[in-house]
Amino acid sequence: MQYWYREEVGESGYPASVRVDERFRDPKVRPKGRTILSCRRMCNIQLRGQAFDVPPGRFRVRWTMWFWAGQDYPYSGSGNRPRSIPRDNSVMERVFPPANSQTAPPPQGTLFFPWDLTLSVGKAQRPGGSFMHQDVDVDRHPVAATELLEPGYREFRLEGGVWNAFKNSGWCEFGGTIIDVDLSGHVAFVISRRFERWWFGGFSFVGVRLDPISC
């Protein structure tokens, strides 16, 4: 059974199976396309993407994500394990179909929220299909971006305080990292976390926005 998903979203900006209550009916931030990536539970997080033919220049990078933490969540500094199982399949609390007990990940009590995700942007060491499918030995290289992106890449770290500011707020944009795009027009993106043998999850990702910065 998969624990990350490509999902289709409708006019609401959320999957059809998710209840959208009043506070999320007219969001300022919503997916531009119809497909999102949702991470239910993963041990080795390495989400990758790339863009070509970006005009040369300086850009501010903004990431669009959705953190479904539920009503009963811990605050930073008090440990980062969820304390209860979400029961309301809504924008704030997602519920997935029961897993096969033979293939299921550990119980909810050992799931950790995705604090310390690192959002990295730069040029791929091996652009194209090689970048998307390159294997990274995370036991030797626990920070995947160092093996995937050229030196000088920029990153934004999703620390506990940032996560607390955006949890349960539906789709949101954050970041603000500034990058310079050269004449190649190539930009690569990596969402990762320093490798540990724990299960992390509870977020969806739809893409990044590059805002040109005038000189």
What does this molecule look like?
- The structure is a single chain.
- The chain has 215 residues and is mainly beta.
- It has a single domain (4-212), classed as Sandwich (Jelly Rolls).
- The protein contains three helices and eleven strands; from the N terminus they run ββββββααβαββββ.
- The strands form three sheets. It has a five-stranded antiparallel sheet with strand order 1-2-11-4-8, with no helix packed on it.
- The protein is globular, with a radius of gyration of 17 Å.
- The relative contact order is 0.31.
- The model is unreliable at 73-78 and 99-109 (pLDDT under 50).
Put the structure in a nutshell.
This protein has 215 residues and is mainly beta.
First and last CA, distance? 49 Å
| Low-pLDDT regions | 73-78, 99-109
Beta-strand content estimate? 25-35%
Q: Helix proportion of residues, in percent?
A: under 10%
What is the SS-derived class?
mainly beta
Our Rg estimate from Cα atoms comes to 17 Å
Overall geometry: globular
Domain count:
1
The mean pLDDT is 80
